[in-house]
Design goal:
Length: about 120
């Protein structure tokens, strides 16, 4: 995925890289054809709003999250300790179903009495 001066495609590439995802995985998670995504990158074209919404859904983020500036992301990352940051990074790499299972597991853990830990 090579992009030139296309901030949207560069951001999509970055998000995929952070998750360790291929273009194929992005297509599957977003329910968009693989050829549509590869053509978008090959032609260096902006996705439509509809396509970007589907990509964001597949990535497990909102459109607002997608357009957040690095400055705001850094502000939030300062609030997390090392373990919390690792949990967030792991969560972001998961597909939608795994995220639901992960949250259910954490909710179950949180309800355990402290003497069981």
């Amino acid at each position: 995925m090579a992009t030139k001066n296309n901030d949207v495609l560069q951001k999509i590439e970055l998000l995929c890289k952070q998750r360790g995802w291929t273009t194929y995985r992005l297509a599957k998670e977003s329910n968009i054809s693989y050829s549509s995504i590869t053509n978008m990158f090959a032609r260096n074209t902006q996705p439509t709003i509809y396509t970007l919404e589907k990509l964001c859904d597949g990535l497990g983020i909102t459109m607002s999250d997608f357009f957040e500036t690095d400055e705001k992301v850094e502000k939030y990352s300062l609030v997390l300790d090392e373990i919390e940051g690792e949990i967030v990074q792991t969560y972001r790499r998961l597909d939608a179903e795994s995220k639901r299972v992960f949250v259910a597991y954490l909710n179950g853990l949180a309800k355990l009495p402290m003497n069981h830990l």
